[in-house]
Design goal:
80 residues; alpha+beta; two-stranded antiparallel sheet; 15% strand; membrane
Length: 80
Amino acid sequence: MRLGALYTYWVPLGFVLAVTVIREAVEEIRCYVRDKEVNSQVYSRLTARGQSLVAGTREASVCPRAWGYSGRIPGLPLPS
């Protein structure tokens, strides 16, 4: 039993998969750029001796998929 030509099944599937892969790649590139921007910011660290400015060197990701948050993630341990 043959319902139709094989390309009528594979071409739409291939198109949907290609669009999905491209969309995910664009999102990952945007997250990478945003992460680099946030990780290079200078932030202040509050210690027992007072407040000091620290260059952002900790690799913190600000692009979890479920979050719409674009700033520094609160509650992360400070770099040693």
